[in-house]
Amino acid sequence: MDPAQLIPIVDPIPIPGPWFDVLLIITFLAHILFMNVVVGGAVISLAGHVSGKGVPLSRSLSKRMPTILALTINMGVAPLLFLQTVYGQFDYTSSVLMAGYWLAVVGLLLAAYYGLYIYDFKFDGLGGLRTPLLVLTLGMMLWIGFMFSNNVTLMLRPEKWFDYFTTNGAGFLNLDDPVLYPRYLHFMVGSLAVGGLFVALVAHFKAEPEHLETGMVWFTRATLVNIAVGVWFLMALPKDIMLRFMGGHLPSTAVLVLGLVGALALVWSGMKRNPVLAAVLTVITVLFMVIARHIVRTAYLAPWFDSSQLPVTGEYSTLMLFLFFLAVGLPCVFWLVRTYLKPDNAQGDA
Length: 350
What we know:
With 350 residues, this protein is an all-alpha fold. The protein has 12 helices and no strands.
């Protein structure tokens, strides 16, 4: 049977697909950075409890993680909608095929959210329960990330969708995909680096040299590990897609080279213990990684789909309306964040 027969018919979109691809890349960049902070922050907090030497840092992080998770969720709405607008016939299908596994993400996310709030508000009273609570909460967040990795890899493999006809129960996962595991680990190890960077940035602006050192150590070591994971990810890709990044397609190769140079620059900035420079380089490097991720997606779907060939209604007024509210909304968000970060308004500092 031809996998193309399983792909739903596409609906017209208001503007050409590449517009949405650009918006998807930009908004996903913001989402992934916030996600990295909350997951990495939770791991660093847990390490502080296990070692018994990082409780003050864990307490500081506990005040920020519920807010960062809220921002992660909100920042994830836009890229999800842009993804569904252009690639909905693949994303919706993979979500349905995962069925119960995918629906469970909502409940687990709510439970993790409450777990972080309890960890913050009841920190002093929890005593020895802090560690198991954080383990449970972190475990739920890691599982959610694994489900997202399953979904975004399953949507790229229409030939895998035939498993539905031989599967009983709550759906199936993309566990036999050799790309799934390095892809997932690439995000999770990256979370340790960005979480450490967040710790270092807070310490830098609050003049806490002991926490700055801790954060930069996490950042540097995790980045080194993630370079190796990234190589694994690249080698696990199908040969034709991998070769695009190895000289077979100039733009793809350029993105990979720039991403690798950026990763080496991150290690250098980490060794220099310069969190501000590291933050700037991190945003740039992660942007290249997000672009590379998009290239991988388009290469996987090339036999069946090209976003530039989608039927278009030509309703550019929707794009203008979106850009207008974006231009008005961003200064408001910036003001809200600044207000929140003021010492007299910061959560738990009153």
